[in-house]
Structures
1.
Amino acid sequence: MFKPSMFCFSILVNLVFLGVASYCNADTVPIDFDQWEVKVSNGRIQTIQFSSHPMGEALESRVQSERGQSVNYAGRYHLFAVGCGTMCQSFIAVDVYTGKIIDSVTASAGACYFPDSSMIVVNPEIYQMYDGQLPDWAFTRYYRMTQDGFLEFYKSKEPYLGQCNN
């Protein structure tokens, strides 16, 4: 009769541990907008302080049309895109209460965001644009809004598979 030794048992435990660790570190970690839920205010942009951000003055003519717009991102920000070249969009966040341009993030393939979440997914469909053969520079990037601006917390070569409303 075969009795497993402590050695065999430890190998089995290590294999299970490595399998779990590999799964946890996989490039397909599910990330959901609900993880970064915020309360949504009903403010609108009254004025924009162009001097509040280094890009502000250069964007003044493009940003004028955003006055009066309501919150559409992270509870208190209005997020909008301006073109910055071929396959380039700059998503700019304006605090609807202060009018300050808080930050911007650049994308090649759009972005997904919601009024009640501080997360933004940049380049959610870039994987499809290149038929899965992504260039070295191409990633789907995940950011969350902080008081200081966008903070990247994850990037992946895999596409974002969740819901996107924009």
2.
Amino acid sequence: MAEASPNGDDGLDRIELYLGASHGYAARFGERIARMAHALAEEAPVLKVRLHLPEPYHDAKPAPPAPNVDHTVPDERRLIAVLELAFHSPLVRRTFHASDAFKAATAGLAEHVAYASAFAVSGIYTYVRDGQLTLAGLRGSRPAQLIERIGAVNQAGADVRHLIRTGKPSAG
């Protein structure tokens, strides 16, 4: 059964791919990246494809606002796409990247993509689930893994959650 709130390594080979647009046309860029994501999702070696097309960044609305911090984003980083891909193993991923299917899915991409940066994902962590902090959200991912691994129920109860949230022991 799949874990609803994963916290750690799931054994899959995952990468996040950040793609920067080569032009300022958000709709054209998004459509091309979505076509590629759909083509990748159709292939058996690709276990997961998640596409995120954030709104183009605007310097007029810095996020997060902070005094004396320059939030100016260069033009080449204003329009991006983030693609999460999962494979059974690095061997499967590398074999797929050399395949005709991958070449077909990415053909002509240079017209819309100026750069690509790939990052290995070492674990999947859920900090909030259904509007509530998970154990990882409350304690941090590494302590939560340890608490789960050794079965430290005395570190996961309502009294501990109350103490961490308020700084005061439960009245009970």
3.
Amino acid sequence: MNLKPETLKKIETVIPRYPERRSALLPVLHLVQEDQGYISKEAMEWIAEQVGVEPIHVYELVTFYPMLRETPAGKKQIRVCRTLSCALAGSYKVCEIFQKRLGAPLNGVSDDGEYSVEFVECLASCGTAPAVLVDDKLYENVTPERTENFIKEHVCPNARPQQPAAEAVEGGEN
């Protein structure tokens, strides 16, 4: 594993703090992700060996927790909750708006490397759905109607609002 010497030292220090090596799994995952930017399959295998568990146990944690990544991310990470409360409140539309405005495909990175957009499981904010995590900060009530302003205020201050499509004239044909 190609980690910075200071990261290796931190890992060597954190593991003995726990009565069982496997209990250090989450702290070690965070240290590796902080060093590498994400947790690769190679890293999962190495971590498993360090804490004495099977690689599948590491993979389970990496895929369960939204703050852990399997792939490189953009400089600014946007995570949109997709579970029931958020979905009913419009999170799928919110995610679609983020993708279009930031040029980042779902679970991918924008061409300029600035943004990544992904769906995540519950962000524990069901009463104030839809919930969005930008980097490590949680935002609530990010409805489709509020998403354009949200992008300008919290994601990309220099963004120009998307031009609305020509609206249909009410009443049908003239």
